[in-house]
Amino acid sequence: NAALRALTLVAPKTTEVSWLSDMVALQYLNVSGKVSGIVELARLPSLRVLSIPTDMPFPGLYGDDPALPAITTLSVNSPSKPFGEFSAAILSSISWLGLGGTRIASLEGLSAFSNVGSLYLGNMYALTEVGELAKMSQLTELDVYACNKITDLSSLGKLGRLRRLSLQVRRVPTLKSLLPGPRLETIRLGDQTHIEVLDTAVLLDFPSL
Any alpha helices (H) in the chain, and if so which ranges? Predict the structure, then answer.
């Protein structure tokens, strides 16, 4: 149905998805499972939300095709290329970005996404540091889930616009590392998150909590 505006596709076994290029009215596309083929994003002018298990069938995410849709929400596991190699149109249009994947060991270049206000990082078991986030001054919301090798969170305290922070990780060295956090209104910790140096009085030092 070429007039379909929203589609969720679950592929329990490898499924060829080139036919999605003909769904010209799509605004929302959520794909999970194993997929193959090539989806031509330039033929989906209305697409705004894209959630995919791999970028391999979507080469249009990279390069400089001027016909790319103005996608605002993107979720992808283990991008196959460095973050800075995403299309310039994608880098500027995305406002909500979700990234996951056990192979991601570095966030280098992530700040090229110049308009991301909300960021989700999940299941990055190889990720050890998040210093790149200090360059993403536009961030207002950050969710970090099961990225348990991160040891230094001090770069998060430098995010002057960050209002909501969720840390569902194995351990947090100290809440002091999140200072000064001038606009932090909410800090959410996971049920299993252990604060190694617990000093609840430091919460009084966050001016907006």
Answer: 88-93
pLDDT digits (tens, 9 = 90+) for 78-99: 898 999 999 999 999 999 999 9
Kindly list the distances between the CA atom of residue 49 and the CA atoms of 27, 88, 94, 96, 162, in Å, as whole numbers in the listed order. 6, 17, 9, 9, 23
Measured distance CA(41)–CA(20) in Å, rounded: 9
Q: Do 148 and 167 touch, CB atoms closer than 8 A?
A: no
Could you give the 3-state DSSP secondary structure of residue 82? coil
* Threshold 0.90, pTM exceeds: yes
Q: How many residues does the chain have?
A: 209
Q: In angstroms, how far is CA 159 from the centroid of its own chain? A: 16
CB 62 within 8 A of CB 83: no
Q: How far is CA 43 from CA 21, 31, 69, 73, 168, in A?
A: 6, 17, 8, 18, 38
Query: Identity (one letter) of the amino acid at 8?
Result: T
Closest CA to 158 of 129, 128, 183, 122: 183
Long-range contacts of 21-28 (CB under 8 A, 24+ apart): none
pLDDT at 131 over 90: yes
Of 170, 177, 174, nearest in space to 194 by CA:
170
The Cα 74–Cα 71 span in angstroms is: 7
